[in-house]
TrEMBL record:
<dbReference type="InterPro" id="IPR036188">
    <property type="entry name" value="FAD/NAD-bd_sf"/>
</dbReference>
<comment type="similarity">
    <text>Belongs to the FMO family.</text>
</comment>
<dbReference type="InterPro" id="IPR000960">
    <property type="entry name" value="Flavin_mOase"/>
</dbReference>
<dbReference type="InterPro" id="IPR020946">
    <property type="entry name" value="Flavin_mOase-like"/>
</dbReference>
<keyword id="KW-0560">Oxidoreductase</keyword>
<dbReference type="Pfam" id="PF00743">
    <property type="entry name" value="FMO-like"/>
</dbReference>
<dbReference type="InterPro" id="IPR050346">
    <property type="entry name" value="FMO-like"/>
</dbReference>
<dbReference type="GO" id="GO:0004499">
    <property type="term" value="F:N,N-dimethylaniline monooxygenase activity"/>
</dbReference>
<keyword id="KW-0285">Flavoprotein</keyword>
<dbReference type="GO" id="GO:0050661">
    <property type="term" value="F:NADP binding"/>
</dbReference>
<dbReference type="GO" id="GO:0050660">
    <property type="term" value="F:flavin adenine dinucleotide binding"/>
</dbReference>
<protein>
    <recommendedName>
        <fullName>Trimethylamine monooxygenase</fullName>
        <ecNumber>1.14.13.148</ecNumber>
    </recommendedName>
</protein>
<dbReference type="GO" id="GO:0034899">
    <property type="term" value="F:trimethylamine monooxygenase activity"/>
</dbReference>
<keyword id="KW-0274">FAD</keyword>
<keyword id="KW-0521">NADP</keyword>
Length: 514
């Protein structure tokens, strides 16, 4: 590639690669710290995955979020009035475009500009890009990689897969564009991810003649709504994170499993296989309609695939069935092909993650930060915003960067625990980045919303109560979000909540005394 022109940017210019949710919220907070973002985006339109016309998008036009509108927004901008509890793709894209306009990000965008190389050059970072055939090189003191994880669909190796002869072929759920083309056909959906389950249900309710699912390990499956309240309002809260530091892991696992069973039941009650007794071992997925479709006989569940011969798929129990199509909802590989080989080696980059300090920094790569490089379970928007605030504070000189030794310890911890490749619960991630940014609220000093802070949803507004960029409107926003859907309408604790609150206070007192 001809390098074309080369431009060295001043230190207050920060390169951001990607204009999806992570890149946009990073740019918003970089601007807040008095710095100037330069946002590289390969598509002609922002939105990342929510821009369904992008070649890298895994979103189909009728798809809705699997997290509620309150938890799928940033702290400065709610969704438009009248938006449904779960937001359709077009409304999500509208929201992100409105966010970019409101936050003043449009002048900082370089659309139709594909990054082809990022490497270290002296004390700077060289970004080589291509805009509609025109190559350019830019150097920056600091770069934020915000391209996300869902960029290369992963399909497992199965004997005979290449020779599958069903008329509709083999595809990944990332390529799914609706049930219409599968009407009247027999479809196998492989995987137990949210997208696999949602698509299986969409097919079953959308006219497919026969829908079969197969997976290696049966997960517990939560509905989107629990007694009229979005699941992410119920399952992810501050008290759960605080209890992690008080109770033994086996007690936490037992409590989480019991909670899941109490609100969703076990898949075997609906006719699916029985998962492992520990929800952390089995894993947790989500779908509103999948298990009811299994119970109604609209979806059949089989063990994992043994082999394929023409249209015939043989399963591990010895049974065989004929299919017109196979859809794999088996996840994505983390792919950053434009990252220099040296950087990839330093961060231990493979198809499933990287080893970084708190998923963000590396001690040998000063001035480089990664956003959203984790496999999050739960709402992503609040977590991305908190991570972006922390990075912007560090780059803006407001918050000290972790020391070299702290970063090294963080990288080693990531390697030892395989943290960069495992699932990362949303509430744990949010509180980690909030503490790093100095914006985690102390529920005790907010008695009028203490219950909402401990047992309500981890809303973006709850991280604008204290610290830098606190908002006077945040307490009311926290109360409104907790009261939404009739969940927490008063500050009167239930007996169970009061027991948890007492335990947490006792632990805080003993820790302070020590």
């Amino acid at each position: 590639m001809s390098l074309g022109t080369c431009f060295k940017h001043p230190e207050d210019k920060i390169a951001i690669i990607g204009a999806g949710p992570a890149g946009l919220v990073a740019a918003r907070w970089i601007l807040a710290r008095g710095l100037h973002p330069v946002i590289f985006e390969a598509s002609p339109r922002i939105g990342g995955q929510w821009n369904s016309t992008s070649s890298s998008s895994a979103v189909w036009p009728r798809m809705r979020t699997n997290t509620s509108r309150i938890m799928t927004a940033f702290s400065d901008l709610p969704h438009a009035a009248g938006t449904g509890t779960y937001v359709e793709q077009s409304a999500m894209l509208d929201y992100l475009e409105r966010y970019a306009f409101t936050m003043g990000l449009l002048p900082h965008l370089r659309l139709k500009t594909r990054v082809e190389r990022l490497e270290r050059t002296g004390d700077d970072w060289l970004v080589q890009s291509n805009t509609e055939g025109r190559s350019q090189s830019d150097t920056f003191a600091r770069v934020i990689v915000a391209t996300g994880r869902q960029n290369q669909p992963e399909v497992p190796e199965i004997p005979g897969l290449e020779g599958f002869s069903g008329s509709l072929g083999v595809a990944h759920t990332a390529q799914y564009d609706g049930a219409e083309r599968y009407r009247g056909r027999s479809v196998l959906v492989a995987g137990c991810s949210i997208s696999a389950l949602e698509i299986a249900a969409d097919l079953a309710l959308g006219g497919a003649a026969n829908v079969v699912t197969t997976n290696r390990r049966q997960r517990y499956i939560l509905p989107k709504m629990i007694a009229g309240v979005p699941t992410d309002h119920v399952m992810f809260n501050r008290a759960a994170v605080l209890l992690d530091g008080v109770l033994p892991p086996d007690v936490i696992a037992e409590a989480v499993t019991a909670k899941v069973l109490s609100v969703a039941g076990s898949p075997d009650q609906f006719g699916a296989p029985k998962p492992a007794g520990n929800a952390f071992v089995a894993g947790i997925s989500q779908s509103q309609n999948y298990l009811p479709c299994v119970a109604e006989g609209r979806i059949s569940v089989m063990p994992w695939i043994e082999s394929i011969d023409g249209r015939s798929v043989r399963f591990r129990d010895g049974a065989s069935h004929m299919f017109d199509a196979i859809l794999f909802g088996t996840g994505f590989r983390l792919s950053l092909p434009w990252l220099s080989e040296n950087i990839g080696r330093q961060i231990g980059l493979d198809g499933h993650g990287a080893d970084l300090h708190d998923f963000t920094f590396h001690p040998e790569l000063p001035g480089l930060a990664f956003l959203g490089m984790f496999d999050l379970v739960g709402p992503t928007f609040p977590v991305l915003e908190l991570q972006a605030r922390w990075v912007a504070q560090c780059f803006g000189g407001v918050t000290p960067l972790p020391s070299h030794s702290e970063m090294q310890a963080g990288v080693e911890r990531s390697r030892a625990t395989n943290a960069g490749r495992g699932s990362f619960p949303m509430h744990v991630a949010a509180c980690l980045f909030a503490r790093n940014a100095g914006v985690e609220p102390d529920a005790v000093i907010w008695p009028e919303i203490e219950r909402a802070l401990l047992f309500g949803p981890l809303t973006p507004a709850s991280f604008r109560l204290q610290g830098l960029d606190a908002l006077a409107t945040a307490p009311a926003a926290v109360a409104r979000a907790a009261a939404a859907f009739g969940a927490i309408t008063s500050e009167r604790f239930s007996a169970e909540e009061d027991g948890v609150r007492t335990l947490l206070k006792r632990n805080t007192a003993s820790t302070t005394a020590a």
